[in-house]
Structures are given as C-alpha cells and as structure tokens.
Amino acid sequence: MKKIVVIGSSNVDTTLHVKDFPKPGETINATDVTTAGGGKGANQAIAAAKSGAETYFINRVGEDSDGGYITHQLKSYGVDTTYVQTTIGAKTGHAYITLNEAGQNDIIIDHGANYELTVEDLKAASDLINNWDCIIAQFETPIDVTTSAFKMAKKAGKVTILNPAPAIDKIPADLLKYTDIIMPNETESAKITGIPIKDNSTLATNAEKLHLLGVKNVIITYGDKGAYISTPDVETLVPAYKVDATDTTGAGDTFIGYFASNLNADMSNFEEAAKIASRASSIAVQRLGAQPSIPTEQEVKQAMEDEE
Ligand code: ATP
Prior knowledge:
The protein is an alpha/beta fold. It has a single domain, classed as 3-Layer(aba) Sandwich (UDP-N-acetylmuramoyl-L-alanine:D-glutamate ligase), CATH 3.40.1190.20. The protein has 11 helices and 13 strands. The chain has helices spanning 40-50, 65-76, 119-124, 126-131, 143-155, 173-177, 186-193, 200-212, 251-262, 270-284, 297-307; strands at 3-7, 11-17, 32-38, 54-62, 84-87, 94-99, 105-110, 134-137, 159-162, 181-182, 217-221, 227-230, 235-238. A hairpin with a 5-residue loop joins strand 6 (94-99) and strand 7 (105-110). Helix 9 (251-262) runs antiparallel to helix 10 (270-284) and helix 10 crosses helix 11. The two termini are 25 Å apart. Adenosine-5'-triphosphate is lined by residues 185, 221-224, 226-227, 240-241, 243, 245, 248-253, 255, 278, 281-282, 285. Homodimer. K(+) binds at residues 247, 249, 284, 287, 289, 293. Keywords: ATP-binding, Carbohydrate metabolism, Cytoplasm, Kinase, Magnesium, Metal-binding, Nucleotide-binding, Potassium, Transferase.
C-alpha cells in the first residue's frame, strides 16, 4: 500500500448561495447557506486516502468547534490525523464563499491556524516524513515549513510533489531544489512562467520554463482538456474524459491525490498514474462539492474496467 504524507491547509467552507452578488453597501438575503470541509491540503489528503493510500495529514486547526469538525471529517474518510495539532487561541481556517445562480463565486479566506504550522511540528513528524513514500504540499501553509519538509524528505530519498496553489509570482529556489514534481493548473503555471496557456504549444513552453526553474518533472492540469506531462521520458497531453460536469470544485485536488497514490516509487509510470488520476477527477466533476465528490478506489477501478 502506498504511504502518503500531505502537509497543508484545512478550512471550513461556508457558502452563501445568492441570486446575484450584492453591490457595495447593499443588503441582500441568501437563498441557502451550506457548510463543508475544504482547504487544498485536506482535500488532497482525502483524495489520497480514498484512492487506497495510507495517508497522514500534517496541519494545524484552531481551538474551536470547526477544528473538531475538520478532524472528524478527515478521520471519516480514512486520513490519519495524529499530526493535526490544535493552536491554543487561534481560529480554524475558514473560507467564506458567495455563490450566485450563474455558478460564479467570490471567495474570502481567513487562513487562521493554517499559518501557525511550524518547523517544530515537522520535527515531531520526522519519523513519518523519513519513512513514508511521498510528500505533497501546496501554498496555503508557510512556505519555509514546506521547504524544511521537502529537504527532510529528499534526504531520506522520498518523492516530493509541489502543488503551487494559490498562484504566487516567485517560488523560492530553495524549495524548487527539493521538488521532484511540480503540479500547477494552467493559471498557476502561467503566473509562474509569465506565458498564458492557449494550446499544446504554449503548454509545452510553460513546461519548458518550469524545467528551467530546476524541476525535472512537470504536470500542468488543463481542466476539461486534460493534463500535460513533461518528464525526461515522456512529453504528452493525457486527455480528460468527456463527461457532463456539474461542479469542478476539487478536480485538481482529486487529480493530485490519485496521481501520487498510483505513481511508482521510481516514478516510472507517470502517464499511467495520470490516466488513473484523470479518470478519478472525471468522476468528481460529475458530483457536487469537493470532499464528498472524490470517488473511492473501487469506483475508479470499476469505471476503468467498464471502458475496456
Ligand atoms: P479546481 O481548482 O477546480 O479544484 P484545478 O483548476 O486545480 O481544479 P483542473 O485543471 O481544472 O484543476 O482539473 C484537474 C483535472 O481534472 C484535469 O486535468 C482533468 O483531468 C480533470 N477535469 C477537470 N475538469 C474536467 C471536466 N470538465 N471534465 C472531465 N475532466 C475534468
């Protein structure tokens, strides 16, 4: 069984469903209010666990009921929360989403305890990082902590996967030095490289620029068009499955969790792992929500068998 550590964020997502966005100064009524678990780190950990990997999550929550809710959600999906710690006096991360009838959203994030993660927390989890197969991180927790984690993992010969999200202009060279695989979506990639993605040729140029930053393996996810892989051995677009998408929230997180879970330790099966990840994401986009929409390993296997 694959062993995966995810270091990253967890949030409670509160969504205010509205007909139209309010204008500045206007008061309106919501048509509904819903709450769900979220945060890129938590979503990716749940995707890895649902795909059958033994998964640990390293994170901090606040001293409030939201922290208990998040920990409960993670556990219910099979994620080990031994290293989810509580910061006394802090609030759990929270995303406030306004969703209009056209499906557009505005999101305001209160990062809360996600920014309280420290290098000391990693040291407490060093046995895990040194012995697990693969570590995944994003940019919703302190970058210096991610850099220390990747450095530790690379010293132990483990695979490191960076999802550079949300997008930032300049990724520290120190972090890139310890990154085996970088997995941005098209917007994040364009922000790093400065080259907008329009087609296969701009995907290739983006991948080339990312390699020049010192990372050998690149995957740029490109929504319903697929995922572009660029490694020393393979350069190709793995097409997305044609499905009727109802909610694409969490498509990228599902892809990352499934990809990591299915990648060999020597990274020799990039294309195959991306095809399984693509299948998993194509199921997720046909369901509502992020965490509940992530399919199980059995569902993905069944879908792949059905198409043979
Ligand atoms: P999000 O932020 O919504 O979680 P993302 O922008 O990080 O997603 P995408 O590039 O949109 O990630 O999608 C990741 C993968 O999910 C794609 O590479 C593709 O395989 C699959 N996917 C996304 N949208 C669709 C779709 N409409 N139909 C089928 N597959 C899709």
